[in-house]
């Protein structure tokens, strides 16, 4: 079994996989219905960015703030409204 065609098909299964540090695929039955529908949580536009923000350390949060400030400093015209609120 060759999982990809990049880098001469690496990573690949190595016999015996667990002993040589590779991975080993196993057959398992998968049941379910294929539907084209979004879950209700997809509509939670504000909770996901907030969860991301709260998961960052204070140093990471400051880095994000600095990056936004840098990028918004390059905007020639005021194209956004009164600003954004994360919390």
Automatic annotation (TrEMBL):
This is catalase. Its cofactor is heme. Its EC number is 1.11.1.6. SUPFAM superfamilies: Heme-dependent catalase-like. Residues 26-36 have a biased composition (Basic and acidic residues). The keyword Transit peptide does not apply. The keyword Heme applies. One of its GO terms (molecular function) is heme binding. GO terms for cellular component: cytosol. Keywords: Heme, Hydrogen peroxide, Iron, Metal-binding, Oxidoreductase, Peroxidase. GO terms for biological process: hydrogen peroxide catabolic process; response to oxidative stress. Residues 40-76 form the Catalase immune-responsive domain.
